[in-house]
Design a protein that fits this description.
CATH architecture of the largest domain: Distorted Sandwich
Largest sheet: 11 strands, mixed
Radius of gyration: 30 Å
Helix content: 25-40%
Number of domains: 2
Number of strands: 19
Structural class: alpha+beta
Distance between the termini: 30 Å
């Protein structure tokens, strides 16, 4: 009985870690990033799926509202949070650089540009009104009166308006409202029909980008949408997205998500709509949200409002915006554990200003929480150790009768009031915490490029001491993902795990089981080499606290 329990527990631990390290979904191989031709750009944002309608006639110029002839121009918008470039063709967002986030940990590294996460692609975001008779509305030149907009930290919101009157008699005003302290942009679209004919179409909101090539093992990169209150995620390697995915229903928002960043279009009036996504051979991943049909009566008007979120996948910011945008952040099966952990990390970081120190504090609190269970576990293992001579006699006496051996073993446990699972229970209970932290540390933008000490300048990445030197002299290290370096934190974790094991009472008499247990610290050291350094730090501190607890218990019982 005891042998099976120990082996089952050890194997379950090994399987869990192997799954996290080897079998967890890996990022797909990125398609070749070719230049995107105008035709491909057109296909990347699917056409309206509305019912075909009668073609609206082109009005004589004298019947249209006269606007100055527009020329293509770029408008820069700068706030304390981002620097964006709009063009009056479409209009379209051409660039959106986040000032607080850079591509690498180097201080001179380029800012993250949401429009060019895959190092290519144009027409990242645009919204237009389309009906069957005018399929090229995205090429419309809009009039705009300003050259640039600049917002200071305490300044009032400012607006940027694009205006056009198309040959089909449809006037379109798009007014973007920018805030100095938000990644949120409000968009008001006013439509007018200057013709004597009824026009029916819909607003189409387009997002497109090229998925990044280098991304984490657990990261989602692709298109996401909230459909009928549930999160739908479409990755570039999904068969459905390659063939073209069509969905309809109550659409709360549509977004393009990268490992740590998000570009979302949120309709204010969520009265249904449709979605289409597609992946081109060039690697462009496009998504289009289409509103329900909009009818413009002769000389009539209509308006729609949208909220744009262009920024980090930060839980607090997305909850603040509302619209259930925070559902895009998913920490997996143990999300219910990971989210409180994230809030706790952010709380402590406000005071200590170091996420590494915050992780240490969290680890101490978790250890205090599990202290009674660990204490009971240690005492149970000590009792089991005392029973080993009697267990050995039972095994020798009934070695040819397994059923009787198990019966006598259980009677022995009952006589001495020992629970054979008592030593495994605390570790088993902590497994969900470990998995939750694994997802948290690998997905949270709070830990991206968050420094701890010396060589650890990114708690979401593996620790690599002397990586600058070794990466230039070494082309490959077995089992280690680049960049190559000395995993100091991981080696310390393995050493403390070995010490913890030596201090733990051995409850098994089988030499094979003992050898398996001795092998575990080495096994875990190799596995943890590519884990986020924040997770390795948690395990290291937990081991150190475990050593202290075992020493204290051992000393008090001596």
């Amino acid at each position: 009985m005891e042998k099976r329990v120990v082996i089952a527990f050890v194997l379950s631990m090994i399987v869990m870690v192997i799954w996290l390290f080897v079998f967890a979904p890996k990022p797909p191989k990125a398609p070749p990033q070719e230049e995107v031709t105008p035709m491909e750009k057109e296909k990347a944002v699917p056409e309206s799926v509305g019912t075909p309608i009668a073609k609206a006639p082109t009005l004589p110029k004298e019947e249209l509202e006269i606007l100055p002839k527009a020329k293509e121009k770029k408008i820069e918008v700068e706030t304390p949070l981002y620097r964006a470039v709009f063009t009056n063709v479409g209009p379209t967002v051409k660039s959106f650089k986040l000032k607080k986030y850079r591509e690498t940990t180097e201080s001179n590294s380029p800012m993250i540009d949401l429009a060019h996460l895959g190092k290519s692609g144009e027409d990242f975001l645009k919204i237009d009104f389309n009906h069957g008779s005018n399929p090229e509305t995205h090429k419309t030149l809009y009039n705009v009166d300003v050259e640039s907009i600049s917002l200071e930290p305490d300044s009032a919101p400012q607006e940027l308006t694009f205006r056009a009157v198309r040959p089909d008699g449809v006037s379109v005003d798009q007014t973007f409202r920018f805030y100095p302290d938000k990644y949120q942009i409000d968009l008001l679209i006013n439509l007018g029909n200057q013709s004597d004919n009824q026009i029916q179409g819909n607003l189409r909101a387009h997002l497109q980008n090229i998925p990044t090539k280098d991304r984490g093992r657990l990261s989602f990169v692709g298109v996401a949408l909230l459909l009928n209150g549930k999160l739908e995620e479409l990755e570039p390697d999904d068969k459905e997205i390659k063939e073209g995915k069509n969905l309809s229903g109550q659409i709360g928002w549509v977004a393009y998500e990268d490992e740590y960043f998000m570009s979302a279009i949120v309709p204010d009036e969520q009265e249904g709509g449709s979605f289409k996504g597609g992946l081109l051979p060039s690697g462009v991943l496009g998504a289009t949200y289409m509103t329900p049909p909009i009818t413009l009566h002769p000389q009539g008007q209509a308006s729609s409002r949208f909220t744009l979120y262009l920024g980090p996948r930060e839980l607090s910011l997305m909850k603040e915006l509302g619209k259930q945008l925070d559902l895009a952040i998913n920490f997996g099966f143990f999300d219910i554990i990971a989210r409180p952990m994230l809030y706790a990390l952010r709380f402590f970081n406000k005071y200590v200003k170091n996420y590494g120190v915050s992780i240490i504090i969290i680890t101490i609190l978790i250890k205090i929480l599990f202290w009674p269970l660990t204490h009971k576990s240690y005492k149970s293992m000590k009792e089991m150790q005392k029973l080993q001579p009697l267990m050995k006699k039972i095994r020798e006496k009934y070695k040819h009768d397994k059923q009787q051996m198990n019966k006598e073993t259980m009677a022995l446990y009952k006589t001495y009031k020992v629970n054979p699972m008592g030593g495994c229970l605390p570790m088993a209970i902590q497994i969900p915490v470990f998995i939750a932290l694994y997802n948290l540390f690998g997905k949270s933008i709070e830990l991206r490029h968050a420094p701890f000490i010396s060589w650890i300048d990114d708690l979401s990445a593996p620790d690599r001491a002397l990586s600058d030197f070794l990466s230039t002299h070494i082309t490959s290290i077995p089992l280690m993902d680049p960049p190559y370096g000395i995993p100091v934190l991981t080696l310390l974790m393995g050493a403390t795990m070995f010490i913890t094991q030596k201090m733990t009472p051995m409850t098994m008499g089988d030499p094979t089981q003992a050898k398996i247990m001795q092998f575990l610290p080495l096994f875990f050291t190799f596995i943890f080499i590519n884990f986020p350094s924040g997770l390795v730090l948690y395990w290291l501190v937990n081991n150190i606290l475990q050593i202290g607890q075992q020493y204290r218990i051992k000393k008090s019982s001596a």
